[in-house]
Write a structure and sequence with these properties.
Bound molecules: pyridoxal-5'-phosphate
Number of helices: 12
CATH architecture of the largest domain: Alpha-Beta Barrel
Structural class: alpha/beta
Distance between the termini: 60 Å
Largest sheet: 9 strands, mixed
Low-confidence stretches: 148-155
Number of strands: 17
CATH class of the largest domain: Alpha Beta
Mean pLDDT: 95
């Protein structure tokens, strides 16, 4: 799906100036769009007491973006030390942060507990004994196995490395309770880029049922369920957007019914990344070469160091050429890596491009820049923020060759034979 009309209207008239001022390539993010989506999410779930979004920091780990999350009142979903550091720097504190790691190291547990701690989401029972100091609030990540199937990116959760199984989950909370844990949450993450809202309702139902079951068995109550991330966005023009209003309406009704039965309801958390920022970012790159062989190639000045998703998963990202329409031709849009899957689009019909034209690659606001890699010593690009007032601010400079070569400067260190 092309970016929203309002992002387009703010961006396209200024694109030449922005490109001339900052140079290409760059990712640019739309503050107004991010706020609009964030506020809408809060609004549709306002019927659930204590609803909160924990932004999945890995999707766009930039302080300029995390400050927007802070202004929206969101928490932070982290899974690494760097993400904890960034979230705390943005103002996240204590239970504003949920740490959902897997294969967790001692160093990570220590960082998670530092500076006011966070909500610790454990990926396995065995970790109860490895947490250096067990906090009073514990959450487990539940993996229901074949009982509920996720969609294709995560695949069958039986094969996924994450979480505690159906047969283990009761015991996990029993052990935690016996070890002195007083407060409980339940988490799962089953979907990725899911556009069918009923999966999310099912996930929430599954967790609510599990909460009722464990509560009765162990005589405990749950403070929250967290249905994870995975809310989808329409990357393709023909995709229908996720029906978040219906999703919220049905989940809210099920929370109300839970409250009727149990006299209380837990809070509900989501930890969406893609849904919040994905559509509100674009990668802008300039055409630098045109090549006609068995196919026509449009060579651009960005490559997989800016955006891995097409090369990694064959993901679709819509591409437009501002100021041009009609006169379309079928091309591959390629970067410069010595790697044939370094293409932003294959056999795509776009308006005829000439050297020097700007191409806009849509929906790069999540899992875009963050996933870029340095193969072929290609450097990652700058990131810009289009402010609500129309100003454009650099929020990450481009990598330099010195950055890239920095790890080659070190003290001699040889373990002799
Ligand atoms: C990646 C991830 C998310 C965010 O996924 P989106 O598809 O961006 O919503 C949330 N929670 C966990 C545990 C994740 O690994």
């Amino acid at each position: 799906m092309p970016m929203s009309k309002s992002f387009e209207n703010r961006l396209y008239p200024r694109l030449d100036d922005i490109a001339a001022h900052f140079g290409t390539p760059f990712h640019i993010y739309d503050e107004a769009g991010i706020k609009q989506t964030g506020n809408h999410l809060k609004e549709v779930f306002s019927g659930i007491d204590g609803f909160r979004e924990y932004y999945a920091v890995k999707a766009l780990p930039n302080p300029g973006i995390l400050n927007i999350m802070q202004s929206l009142g969101f928490g932070y979903d982290c899974s690494s030390i760097a993400e904890l550091v960034l979230s705390r720097a943005a103002g996240g504190h204590g239970e504003d942060i949920m740490f959902t790691s897997n294969n967790t190291s001692q160093e990570e547990f220590i960082c998670a507990a530092a500076e006011g701690g966070c909500i610790l989401n454990l990926d396995d029972i065995s970790l109860l004994k490895k947490v250096p100091e067990l906090p009073e609030l514990i959450c487990f990540r539940y993996n229901p196995g074949e009982r509920r199937t996720g969609n294709h990116i995560i695949g069958n959760p039986v094969e996924a490395k994450y979480g505690v199984t159906y047969d283990q989950i009761l015991d996990a909370y029993r052990q935690a309770k016996d070890m002195g844990v007083k407060r409980f949450g339940l988490h799962t993450m089953l979907a990725s880029n899911e556009l069918n809202y009923t999966y999310m309702v099912e996930t929430s139902d599954m967790l609510l049922e599990m909460v009722e079951y464990i509560s009765q068995e162990l005589d405990i109550t749950f403070e929250f369920i967290n249905i994870g991330g995975g809310l989808g966005i329409p990357y393709r023009p023909e995709d229908h957007p996720l029906d978040i209003d219906s999703m919220a309406r049905e989940i809210t009704a099920h929370f109300d019914a839970f409250k009727e039965r149990n006299g209380y309801a837990p809070r509900m958390f989501v930890e969406s990344g893609r849904y919040i920022t994905g559509p509100h970012g674009a990668l802008v790159t300039r055409a630098i070469n045109r090549k006609e062989i068995y196919r026509t190639y449009v060579g651009v000045d960005a490559c997989m160091s800016s955006l891995m998703r097409p090369g990694l998963y064959g993901a679709y990202h819509h591409i437009t050429v501002p100021g041009k329409s009609g006169n379309e031709e079928v091309v591959d849009v390629a970067g410069s890596l010595c790697e044939n899957n370094d293409k932003f689009a294959t056999q795509r019909s776009i308006p005829k491009v000439e050297d020097g034209d700007l191409l806009v690659i849509h929906d790069t606001g999540a899992h875009g820049h963050a996933m870029g890699f340095n193969y072929n010593a290609r450097l990652r690009p700058q990131e810009l923020l289009l402010r609500e007032d129309g100003s454009v601010e650099l929020i990450r400079r481009a990598e330099t060759l010195d950055d890239h070569l920095a790890t080659l400067k070190f003290e001699e260190n040889v373990l002799s034979a």
